[in-house]
Amino acid sequence: MIEVKNLQKTYRSHGQTVGLLGVDFTVPSGQIVGILGENGAGKTTLLRCIAELLPHKGTALLDGKPASAQYERISYITGEGSYYPALTVAAYGQLLADLHPAFDPARYAKFLEFFSLHGSDVIGRLSTGQRARVELAAGFAKRVPYYLMDEPFLGKDPFTRRDFLKLMSATLTGEETLLLSTHYIEDVEHFLDRALILHEGRIAEDLSLDTLPAGDSLLAHMATACHWDPQRYLQFEDE
Ligand code: ATP
Protein backbone atom coordinates (compact mmCIF):
# COMPACT_ATOMS: atom_id res chain seq x y z
CA MET A 1 0.00 0.00 0.00
CA ILE A 2 1.16 3.53 -0.76
CA GLU A 3 0.24 6.20 1.77
CA VAL A 4 0.89 9.79 0.81
CA LYS A 5 0.20 12.47 3.41
CA ASN A 6 0.46 16.20 2.80
CA LEU A 7 3.33 15.69 0.36
CA GLN A 8 4.85 19.02 -0.66
CA LYS A 9 7.77 20.20 -2.75
CA THR A 10 7.54 23.81 -3.68
CA TYR A 11 9.49 26.16 -5.91
CA ARG A 12 9.15 29.90 -6.50
CA SER A 13 8.59 30.90 -10.08
CA HIS A 14 7.73 34.44 -11.27
CA GLY A 15 6.35 35.36 -7.87
CA GLN A 16 4.23 32.21 -7.59
CA THR A 17 4.61 28.99 -5.62
CA VAL A 18 4.69 25.99 -7.95
CA GLY A 19 5.58 22.30 -7.71
CA LEU A 20 3.63 19.96 -5.46
CA LEU A 21 1.51 22.00 -3.07
CA GLY A 22 0.21 19.25 -0.77
CA VAL A 23 -1.35 15.96 -1.85
CA ASP A 24 -2.95 13.13 0.12
CA PHE A 25 -3.96 9.73 -1.19
CA THR A 26 -3.59 6.01 -0.57
CA VAL A 27 -3.18 3.27 -3.14
CA PRO A 28 -3.98 -0.32 -2.18
CA SER A 29 -1.59 -3.01 -3.34
CA GLY A 30 -2.26 -4.26 -6.85
CA GLN A 31 -3.79 -1.04 -8.14
CA ILE A 32 -2.67 0.57 -11.42
CA VAL A 33 -2.97 4.32 -11.09
CA GLY A 34 -2.50 6.98 -13.76
CA ILE A 35 -0.86 10.20 -12.57
CA LEU A 36 -2.27 12.65 -15.08
CA GLY A 37 -2.44 16.37 -15.67
CA GLU A 38 -1.25 19.12 -18.00
CA ASN A 39 2.38 20.21 -18.41
CA GLY A 40 3.74 21.53 -15.12
CA ALA A 41 0.89 20.05 -13.02
CA GLY A 42 3.38 18.31 -10.69
CA LYS A 43 3.44 14.69 -11.91
CA THR A 44 7.22 14.25 -12.06
CA THR A 45 7.65 16.10 -8.77
CA LEU A 46 5.11 13.76 -7.12
CA LEU A 47 6.78 10.60 -8.41
CA ARG A 48 10.25 11.85 -7.49
CA CYS A 49 9.05 12.71 -3.96
CA ILE A 50 7.48 9.25 -3.55
CA ALA A 51 10.75 7.70 -4.74
CA GLU A 52 12.61 9.95 -2.24
CA LEU A 53 14.70 11.38 -5.07
CA LEU A 54 13.74 14.89 -3.93
CA PRO A 55 13.72 16.35 -0.41
CA HIS A 56 10.13 17.24 0.53
CA LYS A 57 7.65 17.95 3.30
CA GLY A 58 5.04 15.38 4.29
CA THR A 59 5.34 11.63 3.95
CA ALA A 60 5.18 8.98 1.25
CA LEU A 61 5.29 5.44 2.61
CA LEU A 62 5.27 2.15 0.74
CA ASP A 63 4.15 -0.66 3.03
CA GLY A 64 4.92 1.65 5.95
CA LYS A 65 8.45 2.63 4.93
CA PRO A 66 9.95 5.36 2.72
CA ALA A 67 11.25 4.31 -0.69
CA SER A 68 14.81 5.14 0.40
CA ALA A 69 14.65 2.27 2.91
CA GLN A 70 13.67 -0.28 0.26
CA TYR A 71 14.97 0.59 -3.22
CA GLU A 72 15.29 -3.12 -3.96
CA ARG A 73 11.44 -3.28 -3.95
CA ILE A 74 10.94 -0.37 -6.35
CA SER A 75 11.53 0.18 -10.02
CA TYR A 76 11.61 3.83 -11.08
CA ILE A 77 11.27 4.14 -14.84
CA THR A 78 11.49 7.33 -16.88
CA GLY A 79 11.29 7.87 -20.62
CA GLU A 80 14.51 9.85 -20.57
CA GLY A 81 16.64 6.91 -21.61
CA SER A 82 19.72 5.40 -20.11
CA TYR A 83 22.49 7.36 -18.43
CA TYR A 84 25.11 4.90 -19.67
CA PRO A 85 25.62 5.80 -23.35
CA ALA A 86 28.98 4.00 -23.64
CA LEU A 87 27.60 0.63 -22.54
CA THR A 88 26.10 -1.99 -24.78
CA VAL A 89 22.57 -3.10 -24.02
CA ALA A 90 23.95 -6.42 -22.71
CA ALA A 91 26.56 -4.74 -20.48
CA TYR A 92 23.86 -2.47 -19.08
CA GLY A 93 21.79 -5.55 -18.21
CA GLN A 94 24.80 -7.14 -16.52
CA LEU A 95 25.41 -3.97 -14.49
CA LEU A 96 21.80 -3.93 -13.33
CA ALA A 97 21.91 -7.65 -12.52
CA ASP A 98 24.99 -6.99 -10.34
CA LEU A 99 23.32 -4.04 -8.60
CA HIS A 100 19.76 -5.32 -8.10
CA PRO A 101 18.93 -8.74 -6.70
CA ALA A 102 15.41 -8.42 -8.16
CA PHE A 103 16.72 -7.96 -11.73
CA ASP A 104 15.68 -10.92 -13.88
CA PRO A 105 18.05 -11.31 -16.90
CA ALA A 106 15.61 -13.66 -18.66
CA ARG A 107 12.84 -11.09 -18.44
CA TYR A 108 15.27 -8.38 -19.70
CA ALA A 109 16.14 -10.62 -22.66
CA LYS A 110 12.44 -11.15 -23.40
CA PHE A 111 11.71 -7.42 -23.40
CA LEU A 112 14.80 -6.73 -25.54
CA GLU A 113 13.59 -9.25 -28.09
CA PHE A 114 10.12 -7.72 -28.00
CA PHE A 115 11.65 -4.29 -28.66
CA SER A 116 13.94 -5.64 -31.43
CA LEU A 117 17.04 -4.60 -29.49
CA HIS A 118 20.31 -6.53 -29.54
CA GLY A 119 22.74 -7.06 -26.70
CA SER A 120 25.56 -5.69 -28.84
CA ASP A 121 23.77 -2.35 -29.48
CA VAL A 122 25.65 0.59 -27.93
CA ILE A 123 23.13 2.64 -25.97
CA GLY A 124 24.55 6.02 -27.07
CA ARG A 125 24.06 5.13 -30.74
CA LEU A 126 20.39 4.23 -30.37
CA SER A 127 17.56 6.59 -31.30
CA THR A 128 15.62 8.42 -28.55
CA GLY A 129 12.76 5.93 -28.71
CA GLN A 130 15.14 2.96 -28.76
CA ARG A 131 16.98 4.27 -25.67
CA ALA A 132 13.64 4.66 -23.94
CA ARG A 133 12.87 1.05 -24.91
CA VAL A 134 16.09 -0.06 -23.18
CA GLU A 135 15.02 1.84 -20.07
CA LEU A 136 11.58 0.27 -20.10
CA ALA A 137 13.02 -3.23 -20.63
CA ALA A 138 15.49 -2.66 -17.77
CA GLY A 139 12.85 -1.21 -15.45
CA PHE A 140 10.43 -4.02 -16.09
CA ALA A 141 13.09 -6.69 -15.80
CA LYS A 142 13.10 -5.97 -12.08
CA ARG A 143 10.52 -8.16 -10.37
CA VAL A 144 9.37 -5.78 -7.65
CA PRO A 145 6.09 -4.93 -5.93
CA TYR A 146 6.26 -1.22 -6.88
CA TYR A 147 6.71 0.39 -10.30
CA LEU A 148 6.91 4.18 -10.50
CA MET A 149 6.80 5.13 -14.16
CA ASP A 150 7.30 8.73 -15.28
CA GLU A 151 6.20 9.14 -18.90
CA PRO A 152 7.68 5.83 -20.02
CA PHE A 153 6.20 6.24 -23.50
CA LEU A 154 8.17 9.35 -24.45
CA GLY A 155 9.43 9.01 -28.02
CA LYS A 156 7.73 5.67 -28.56
CA ASP A 157 5.63 5.10 -31.63
CA PRO A 158 1.91 4.28 -31.21
CA PHE A 159 2.35 0.57 -31.97
CA THR A 160 5.19 0.19 -29.46
CA ARG A 161 3.08 1.92 -26.82
CA ARG A 162 0.10 -0.33 -27.35
CA ASP A 163 2.09 -3.54 -27.68
CA PHE A 164 4.10 -2.70 -24.60
CA LEU A 165 0.98 -2.06 -22.51
CA LYS A 166 -0.39 -5.44 -23.57
CA LEU A 167 2.89 -7.18 -22.76
CA MET A 168 3.06 -5.35 -19.44
CA SER A 169 -0.51 -6.45 -18.56
CA ALA A 170 0.36 -10.03 -19.45
CA THR A 171 3.57 -9.88 -17.40
CA LEU A 172 2.12 -8.41 -14.20
CA THR A 173 0.78 -10.89 -11.65
CA GLY A 174 -1.92 -8.53 -10.33
CA GLU A 175 -0.11 -7.95 -7.04
CA GLU A 176 2.20 -5.18 -8.23
CA THR A 177 1.29 -1.57 -7.58
CA LEU A 178 1.94 0.82 -10.44
CA LEU A 179 1.94 4.60 -10.59
CA LEU A 180 2.12 5.68 -14.21
CA SER A 181 2.45 9.27 -15.34
CA THR A 182 1.76 9.85 -19.02
CA HIS A 183 0.15 12.17 -21.54
CA TYR A 184 -0.92 9.24 -23.75
CA ILE A 185 -4.34 9.14 -22.14
CA GLU A 186 -6.18 7.18 -24.80
CA ASP A 187 -3.50 4.47 -24.81
CA VAL A 188 -3.57 3.90 -21.05
CA GLU A 189 -7.25 4.55 -20.31
CA HIS A 190 -8.26 0.86 -20.45
CA PHE A 191 -5.18 -0.26 -18.59
CA LEU A 192 -5.70 1.93 -15.50
CA ASP A 193 -7.84 1.12 -12.46
CA ARG A 194 -7.81 4.69 -11.31
CA ALA A 195 -6.60 8.16 -12.29
CA LEU A 196 -5.29 10.93 -10.08
CA ILE A 197 -5.61 14.14 -12.07
CA LEU A 198 -3.25 16.86 -10.89
CA HIS A 199 -3.77 20.55 -11.50
CA GLU A 200 -1.36 23.23 -10.31
CA GLY A 201 0.28 20.99 -7.74
CA ARG A 202 -2.85 19.51 -6.18
CA ILE A 203 -5.18 16.59 -6.88
CA ALA A 204 -8.10 18.00 -8.83
CA GLU A 205 -9.86 14.65 -9.28
CA ASP A 206 -9.44 11.10 -8.02
CA LEU A 207 -11.32 8.94 -10.50
CA SER A 208 -12.13 5.25 -10.44
CA LEU A 209 -12.11 4.06 -14.04
CA ASP A 210 -14.09 0.91 -13.28
CA THR A 211 -17.12 3.02 -12.53
CA LEU A 212 -16.78 5.50 -15.42
CA PRO A 213 -20.15 5.45 -17.21
CA ALA A 214 -20.21 4.55 -20.91
CA GLY A 215 -19.81 7.69 -23.01
CA ASP A 216 -17.81 9.41 -20.28
CA SER A 217 -14.09 9.75 -21.04
CA LEU A 218 -10.98 10.25 -19.00
CA LEU A 219 -9.94 13.04 -21.37
CA ALA A 220 -13.19 14.90 -20.67
CA HIS A 221 -12.54 14.63 -16.93
CA MET A 222 -9.03 15.93 -17.45
CA ALA A 223 -10.27 18.88 -19.49
CA THR A 224 -12.64 19.84 -16.66
CA ALA A 225 -10.10 19.23 -13.89
CA CYS A 226 -7.47 21.31 -15.72
CA HIS A 227 -9.97 24.09 -16.60
CA TRP A 228 -9.11 23.67 -20.27
CA ASP A 229 -10.63 26.38 -22.44
CA PRO A 230 -10.83 25.19 -26.06
CA GLN A 231 -11.40 28.79 -27.22
CA ARG A 232 -8.33 30.23 -25.48
CA TYR A 233 -6.20 30.14 -28.64
CA LEU A 234 -8.50 32.78 -30.13
CA GLN A 235 -6.94 35.36 -27.78
CA PHE A 236 -3.60 34.71 -29.48
CA GLU A 237 -4.71 34.83 -33.09
CA ASP A 238 -3.05 37.38 -35.36
CA GLU A 239 -5.13 40.53 -35.86
P1 ATP B 1 5.19 17.71 -17.67
O1 ATP B 1 3.91 17.09 -18.07
O2 ATP B 1 5.51 18.92 -18.48
O3 ATP B 1 6.35 16.76 -17.58
P2 ATP B 1 4.85 17.70 -14.74
O4 ATP B 1 3.40 17.58 -14.38
O5 ATP B 1 5.69 16.49 -14.63
O6 ATP B 1 4.95 18.34 -16.19
P3 ATP B 1 6.72 18.89 -12.87
O7 ATP B 1 7.96 18.57 -13.63
O8 ATP B 1 6.41 18.10 -11.68
O9 ATP B 1 5.45 18.88 -13.84
O10 ATP B 1 6.78 20.43 -12.48
C1 ATP B 1 5.78 21.03 -11.65
C2 ATP B 1 6.11 22.49 -11.46
O11 ATP B 1 7.30 22.59 -10.66
C3 ATP B 1 6.40 23.25 -12.76
O12 ATP B 1 5.86 24.55 -12.64
C4 ATP B 1 7.92 23.31 -12.81
O13 ATP B 1 8.36 24.49 -13.47
C5 ATP B 1 8.29 23.36 -11.34
N1 ATP B 1 9.59 22.76 -11.09
C6 ATP B 1 9.89 21.44 -11.21
N2 ATP B 1 11.19 21.22 -10.92
C7 ATP B 1 11.73 22.44 -10.64
C8 ATP B 1 13.03 22.89 -10.25
N3 ATP B 1 14.04 22.05 -10.11
N4 ATP B 1 13.19 24.21 -10.03
C9 ATP B 1 12.16 25.08 -10.14
N5 ATP B 1 10.91 24.71 -10.50
C10 ATP B 1 10.69 23.42 -10.74
3D structure, described in words:
There is one protein chain. The chain is 28% helix and 26% strand. The chain has 239 residues and is an alpha/beta fold. It has a single domain, classed as P-loop containing nucleotide triphosphate hydrolases (Rossmann fold). The strands form two sheets. It has a six-stranded mixed beta sheet, sandwiched between helices. A three-stranded antiparallel beta sheet has the order 2-1-4. β6, α5 (158-171) and β7 (177-181) form a beta-alpha-beta unit. The longest helix has 14 residues, at 158-171. It is globular.
**How many E strands?**
9
Order of helical and strand elements: EEEHEEHHHEHEHEEH
Principal-axes geometry comes out as globular
- Overall structural class, as computed from helix and strand content, comes to alpha/beta
State the major sheet: 6 strands, mixed
Integer tally of domains: 1
* CATH fold call: Rossmann fold
Give a quick set of tags describing it:
239 residues, alpha/beta, six-stranded mixed beta sheet, three-stranded antiparallel beta sheet, 9 strands, binds adenosine-5'-triphosphate
